Amino acid sequence: MGIALADAAAEYGADVVLVLGPVNLLPSNPDVTVIKVITAAEMADECISRFKICDIAILSAAVADYTPSTVHKEKIKKQEGELILKLKPTVDIARETGKIKKTSQLLAGFALETDKGMASAERKLKQKNLDIIILNSLKDEGAGFNFDTNRITIIDKYNNIDKFELKTKDETARDILDKIVSMII
């Protein structure tokens, strides 16, 4: 969704910076500035530092919630018995940007859920100080990863709920941007 949103926002006339994790796709719009990152920590650093000077941020990446506590520079050799992997939480980009959000900024986030979607999305909207949250589910056929389509529900901070049918990601991006535009006009 991030690439579709970046392309659509550039078509709407926005000055777009896309912080992009390791994917095989790039925006088709040459006006989109792409900042490539590899790790969740790199993405957090880029997003949080850039958020301070932006008007609108749409956080659509499905960033890992956890990362290994210890990173080895070389292969871990097989040993007898189990290997216990310790994980630590990654920086919650939505929460951190929500903490520093100015009243003049609009912050949109995504909630990719597998159960209790609406309740989880509404909780995230409030806890992370978002203006809108876009709910989608991995259980919806044809939506989420590895598809060119998505089915979303947009919930705003005023408790307005807009449900959309399955659409292309390009159409979905325009639905999201239309909602954002309606909130800033």
What's the main sheet like? 5 strands, mixed
Total helical elements: 5
- The figure for the number of domains is 1
Cα distance spanning the termini = 24 Å
Strand order across the largest sheet:
3-6-7-9-10
Give a concise summary.
With about 180 residues, the chain is of the alpha/beta class. It is about 30% helix and about 25% strand.
Kindly describe this structure.
The protein is built from 5 helices and 11 strands; from the N terminus they run αββαβββαβαβββββα. By secondary structure, it is an alpha/beta fold. It has a single domain (2-64, 87-184), classed as Rossmann fold (3-Layer(aba) Sandwich), CATH 3.40.50.10300. The chain has a 5-stranded mixed sheet with strand order 3-6-7-9-10, with helices on both faces. Strands 1-2 form a two-stranded parallel sheet. A two-stranded antiparallel sheet has the order 4-5. Strand 9 (153-156) and strand 10 (161-163) form a beta hairpin. Helix 1 packs across helix 5 (169-184). The longest helix is centred in the last third of the chain and has 16 residues, at 169-184. The chain starts with a helix and ends with a helix.
Topology, please?
Blueprint: H1 2-11, E1 17-20, E2 33-36, H2 40-51, E3 56-59, E4 66-68, E5 87-89, H3 93-100, E6 106-113, H4 117-127, E7 132-137, E8 149-150, E9 153-156, E10 161-163, E11 167-168, H5 169-184
Parallel strand pairs: 1-2, 3-6, 6-7
Antiparallel strand pairs: 4-5, 7-9, 8-11, 9-10
Helix pairs in contact: 1-5
